[in-house]
Amino acid sequence: MLGPVECRDGAGLPVRLGGPRHREVVARLLVARRRVVPVDRLVADLWEEPPPGATGAVRTFVAEVRRALEPGRRPRTPSRLLATEGLGYVLRPAPGAVDAWHFEAEVARAAGLAPADAAPVLDAALATCRGPAYADFPGARWAHAERARLAELRLHAVERRADALIRSGAPREAVWDLDAHVAEHPWREDGWHLLATALLRSGRQGDALGVLRRARRVLADQLGADPGPGLARLEREVLRQADHPDEAAPATGDEVWSSAAAAYEGSVPARSPARLEATASLLRELAVTGAGGLDAARRHRAAAVAAAERTGDAELAARVIGVYDVPAVWTRVDDPDAARTVVRAAERVLARLPEDAPETVRARLLASVAVESRGDALAEGALPRAADPPGRAREPWRRRAQQAAAEAESAARRLHDASLLAFALNGTFLQSFAHCGQAARRDATGAELVRLARTHGLLGPEVLGRLIRVQALAGLGDLPGADHQATAADHLADRYERPLARVFTTWYRALRTTLATPADLTATEAAEVTEAAYAEAVALLPTCGMPGFATGLPALTRLAPVVRAGALPAPEAFTEADWGPYDPWVRPLLLLGDARPDEAREALGTAPRPPHDLMAEPMWCLLARAAALAGDPVLAARAAAVLSPAEDQQAGAASGLLTFGPVAEYLAEAREAAGG
Question: Which residues bind DNA (predicted)?
Fold first, then answer.
């Protein structure tokens, strides 16, 4: 779309769509961004005065485009790309398959990267622009708004690339493109500001002043306006430096960081305990910067904790462990070994703390235990079988984690410590999955976190609280409420550079699309809708830095429409699926789908109980259905008992990720199989 409209196959070879009208149909449907365009609208957009038979012509164009896009599709098989819905058509390519959508996604991704990493991303994105968007339809009214939007986005990308080059120490590279940029778009003050800044950072003070004066003349001549405050301030600064050349320009954030780090390095003795505390605090900030920062923080935290313990100072070790109050919204840890290491260290330090140690220090250790023990991260030995009756005495790790969460929250409320309470409430949330159907309780926790954070200016806890509410409200069926929380979380994430929050809201919006899908679709049609809805969300997983979250999810999204339709998974459709940690609960259904009931019953007999986390309800639903189909009344009865509190909810929606359909349907199957 970024230039003349063209299509290429998976090998990069051109696909002949047909004549100009065929390409215009494709372009018009892409502008709709996976929304249905009625035939009447297509007719009106393609012709100012539609000729007789225009509707039939559009249908012919669509049929020929379908054949071009999917040459191997069998006759009378529904199209996976260009579908008929109602009285119109919808085109559903993967997000990465459309250059305009990919360009937009890459520009957004670059906004969350460090300048040195953002510049090459923006370089690659700008290289995909072959000319004005929809260049072969310059007069089409339907393309006007989208063409203008993409043109603005391209100019924004040019300026952000220049800014990234300047900030990463390559201002001379930015000058070359910015000079042409301001010549072509003289009304863009950001372009003039960046060009002058790049020249100034390149040591060309006189040229920078000349550019600013040229900007003043151009803006006055062409727009009749004076430069804005930003340009005016920069001009005054350049003039001030010209009058006082020995005075340094105000330091940039990067320069302040380098100077402060050098001062710390030179002032704080090597092996000083202060270095350990500073390192732990830095790791906390590093963890929220994105996937790379999260992975690095995770790797270095265990080393910092071990070093703190080796000092023999229990309070120091407690502070190093407890300062890492990074918000955690997903209930499966990314590195169970690292989580176990931190918890064991926290338990040792708790036992060694002197009686007069500050209560906040002790409470932060308890909150750390609660957060790091989420799910079954601290399981001791094999989990109980799903068919076994409940018995908490056999799972002491859960009891210890829940007690730690309760004690941390109680201490925080007693001490009126807002930051500590936010940390403790994170632990309370992560330990609230002992039973299904607890979405309302978690929504209350999320709402308290949001109120607390807004009162005390706590950014991380507010993002956490809103994401918790997205999950809980989705589970309760309050989609407008979940939409509001997702939008608020996105705003905070964009404003304060918290890119990982977008991973969860993107997945929620895919779930939202699924929940809005008409119930009368066939399994094939539902699978097509689901695949299109989740394409963007799944694409985020390889680089999100959260393996505990990402592993197995793509396969579950493909399974979801199958089980929602009441069907069994076809073995050939899932031969290469990676189920990750969800394999024990998916396996019995896969065996039933492969007509192997005896093996399915055996798998049900050995399946562990699902973990106490956000995916517990959908996994119990899979067990309930498999038990009903395989004739296992004991497990069916157990699943029915576990799922009963969630009877009025959508299976899995409380995860904010996906749904297997109403829990009530699985309950009915399980109760019938159990004989009650």
Answer: 1-93
Q: Which residues of 356-389 are buried (b: 16+ CB within 10 A; e: fewer)?
A: ebeebbbbbbbbbbbbbbbbbbbbeeebeebbee
Q: What is the DSSP letter of 90?
A: E
Cβ 430 vs Cβ 374: under 8 Å: yes
Q: In the numeric block, which tokens belong to residue 431?
A: 């330990």
End-to-end CA distance of the chain: 59
Give kind and range of the element (H or E) at residue 465.
helix 459-476
Q: At residue 173, what is the residue type?
A: E
How crowded is residue 513: how many other Cβ atoms within 10 Å of its Cβ?
Answer: 16
As a whole number of angstroms, the longest Cα–Cα distance in the chain is 92
Mean pLDDT, rounded, for 42-69: 88
Distance of CA 386 to the CA centre of its chain: 31
Strand order in the sheet with 37-38: 37-38, 88-91, 82-85
More confident residue, 131 or 454: 454
Tell me the angle at which helices 291-310 and 314-322 cross, rounded to the nearest 10 degrees.
170
Q: How far is CA 300 from CA 307, 390, 503, in A?
A: 11, 38, 24
Q: What is the pLDDT of residue 170?
A: 84
Calculate the dihedral angle through the C-alpha atoms of 527, 533, 536, 538, rounding to the nearest 10 degrees: -40
Q: Cα–Cα–Cα angle for 666, 625, 613, nearest 5°? A: 75
Cα angle for residues 641, 645, 647 (degrees, 5° grid): 95
Which residues contact residue 382 at a Cβ distance below 8 angstroms, ignoring those fewer than 6 apart? 608
Q: What is the pLDDT of residues 533-591, one digit of tens each?
A: 898 899 999 889 999 999 999 999 999 999 998 999 998 889 889 999 999 999 999 99
Residue 242 dihedral angles phi and psi, to the nearest 5°:
-65, -35
Angle at 471 between CA 567 and CA 627, to 5 degrees: 30
Task: Say which residues have a Cβ less than 8 Å from residue 263's Cβ, sequence separation at least 6.
Answer: none
Q: Give CA 87 to chain center in angstroms.
A: 34
3-class DSSP state of 38: strand
**pLDDT (tens digit per residue) in 641-659:** 999 999 999 999 999 999 9
Per-residue pLDDT of 25-47, as tens digits, reads 888 888 888 788 889 888 988 88
For the chain, give the mean pLDDT: 88
Q: Express each pLDDT in 304-321 by its tens digit.
A: 999 999 999 999 999 999
CA distance 466 to 485: 5
The helix (run of H) or strand (run of E) holding residue 391 is none
Does the pLDDT value for residue 392 go beyond 70? no
Does the pLDDT value for residue 265 go beyond 70? no
Nearest Cα neighbor of 375 from 340, 326, 412, 411 is: 340
Distance of alpha carbon 264 from alpha carbon 429, whole angstroms: 37
| pLDDT, tens only, 97-130 | 888 888 888 888 888 777 888 888 888 988 888 8
Distance CA 514, CA 537 (A): 13
Distance between CA atoms of 179 and 165, rounded to whole angstroms?
14
